[in-house]
Design a protein that fits this description.
There is one protein chain. Helices cover 28% and strands 34% of the residues. With 288 residues, the chain is α+β, with helices and mostly antiparallel strands. It has three domains: 120 residues, Periplasmic binding protein-like II (D-Maltodextrin-Binding Protein, domain 2); 89 residues, Periplasmic binding protein-like II (D-Maltodextrin-Binding Protein, domain 2); 68 residues, Alpha-Beta Plaits (2-Layer Sandwich), CATH 3.30.70.120. The structure holds adenosine monophosphate (AMP).
Length: 288
């Protein structure tokens, strides 16, 4: 049975399980708080810390894993390859300094700068690329306080809205990377055709759910003589689907997949063309 490592707690945990469930792979637990579960016919889910997942996948303890792109980059293991960008869990790894600090650009920091971070690998590589020789102060969380305690000059930490930095009297002076949740796989395992096929099937299923979440299915009855204009406001995947309505031929039903952000405008445009009976529904999965 193939193993997929999934975060057992934290920000990515619930979203990952929910995504598998929607893709038709529901975790079946034998007991409460179990760290393993059946996932469909073919897979076993193992629940571990997001930080440990790149390591587990690199070592082949699990063929696949779901974890943050930041953690994959920090682990920097050649055995771990990205299979799919899941798009959620978006955050940035940034360099931040005290609000009253004088430096506005990480490249201007002097050699010997002390950097508090739980991302020592990424911090080292980033400052190396800038030609700045740093000293890493390893912390496993709450790095924001370090510059105020005098144990570090700057921090390298995750930020999404920037409010945690602000509240802690820090300001961002540079960005190292942007991260989202990823599905990763073990490079060697992916060279086995059976495993590759399973990886493709899982990643296609997850991608179909993610694609569907950003779109809606829109149906409306429109006057047949306005069809040319309807086509312009309802682009669909390859044009709208037009279905006969069993009246005297005056109306047809137009169906199309519409981007979530376009639904409001499309409804108004359709109404202006005389549309009636407009219906908008969610889509479970979408495979182009
Ligand atoms: P956890 O520490 O288990 O909550 O997971 C942290 C992971 O969630 C990080 O490594 C990121 O990949 C992701 N993440 C998404 N947004 C944020 C955020 N605002 N702060 C920290 N981690 C985030």
């Amino acid at each position: 049975m193939l193993r997929i490592a999934i975060p057992n707690k934290g920000r990515l945990s619930e979203a990952a399980l929910d995504l598998f469930h929607k893709a038709g792979l529901k975790a079946e637990f034998r007991a409460d708080r179990a760290l393993m579960a059946r996932l469909g016919e073919e897979f076993q889910a193992i629940f571990v810390r997001a930080q440990d997942i790149p390591e587990f996948v690199a070592d082949g303890a699990a063929e696949f894993g779901i974890t943050g792109g930041d953690l994959v980059a920090e682990a920097n293991r050649a055995e771990v390859v990205e299979v799919l960008d899941l798009g959620f869990g978006r955050c940035r790894l940034v360099v931040a300094a005290r609000q009253d600090g004088a430096v506005d650009d990480p490249a201007d920091l002097p050699d010997g700068t002390r950097v508090a971070t739980s991302f020592p690998g990424l911090a080292r590589r980033y400052f190396e690329s800038l030609g700045v020789d740093i000293r890493v102060v390893p912390v496993s969380g709450a790095a924001e306080i370090a510059p105020h305690l005098g144990v570090a000059d700057v921090i390298v930490d995750l930020s999404s809205t920037g409010s945690t930095l602000r509240v802690n009297g820090l300001r961002e002076i540079g960005e190292i990377l942007e991260s989202t949740a990823r599905m990763v796989g073990n490079r060697e395992a992916l060279e086995v055709p059976e495993t590759r096929r399973a990886a493709d099937e899982v990643s296609n299923a997850l991608a179909s759910v993610l694609r569907a979440q950003r779109r809606r299915y829109l149906m409306a009855n429109v006057p047949r003589d306005r069809l040319d204009e309807v086509r312009k406001v309802l682009p669909g995947i390859s044009g709208p689907t037009i279905v006969d309505v069993l009246d005297q031929g005056r109306w047809v039903a137009a169906h199309a997949v519409v981007e979530e952000g376009e639904v409001y405008r499309t409804i108004n445009d359709l109404k202006a063309l005389g549309a009636e009976g407009i219906l908008v529904t969610r889509i479970e999965r979408l495979m182009p």
